[in-house]
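Writing this down once: the sequence line spells out the residues, with the fold written below as integer tokens. This is how one looks:
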Amino acid sequence: MSLGPVMLDVAAPGLDDEDRKRLGHPQVGGVILFSRNYESPQQLNSLIDEIHAIRSPRLVVAVDQEGGRVQRFRDGFQNLPAMARFGECYDEDAGIAIRYAESFAWIMASELLHYGVDLSFSPVLDLGNPVSSVIGDRAFHQDPEVITRLANAWIRGMKKAGMEAIGKHFPGHGSVEGDSHHVMPFDRRGFLDIEALDLVPFRRVIATHLTGIMMAHVIYDQVDEMPAGYSKVWIEDVLRSQLGFDGIVFSDDLSMSGAESVGGYAERAQASLQAGCDILLVCNNATGADEVLEALDGYSNPTSQLRMIRMHGVPSPQSADLFTTQPWRQAIALLEGFNQQEFPGESGDLFE
């Protein structure tokens, strides 16, 4: 059975019969985990073993483990800084900040791979514009050139561990005020303004190496009336043709308010695939997930299937003994020292 175009969530720290049936559906290709699915590293390992046993090739297991506000696994995992802290460090010493970014991305990816997680949806390539509270400290910096340098370092660290990187949220969520989890944000700028700022990190990082992209649920109405995740203009014309991206394209979660503009779950799934998305995220709504699976009965895209297979993590031979290795101990010492530092502009509520 090949991997399908849908990535779903599960409700609890373990699977029930409904989960097993849904994950065995031929249109499912992966599972995204949340904080509710995590109790301890040992429990996580058991959950992932159970997910992997459902079918072959095994489902891709993903998580949002950016650091800072967005870190789903905490107790028993390393405390990862928000990406904005690398930007603050960069303003003091660019070389050290790049070293930190690469090293801590290696920690993040190595730790996840050790327990069987294939993929973390990172790095964030959005601008750190104060107008966007939902992005905020999830962004490396406000300067696209700095974002590019830090993001490339982060990706190097992930790849050294054996994990592919997913840049988000194309073509940029950092310059709009609305939170697409709750509303439909609009970006009223023309393409040239977006290209000169928000697209810079995506363009530069794609040119270096980037395996995946996650789309933004934002309408850039001077470019296309459709949200970016439903837009052939953004996916086929800009991302594929102009930027030369040939990797995997993920929708953002089709359960978010910013995804509702085209109708119900079946319509959202069809619109995403027709625009050029390879994989659809459907989270926190089991009924919606079932509607998507039913609507896609018989759907097949061999190119997307191959792209998804490449998302399986490839941990190093030392992964089983990761926590006793010298590189791990050295990297953890660096992380612990970094977490004790303060940087200009850091405030108490920035990293809630």
Notes: The two ends are 42 Å apart (CA to CA). The first strand starts at residue 6 and ends at 8.
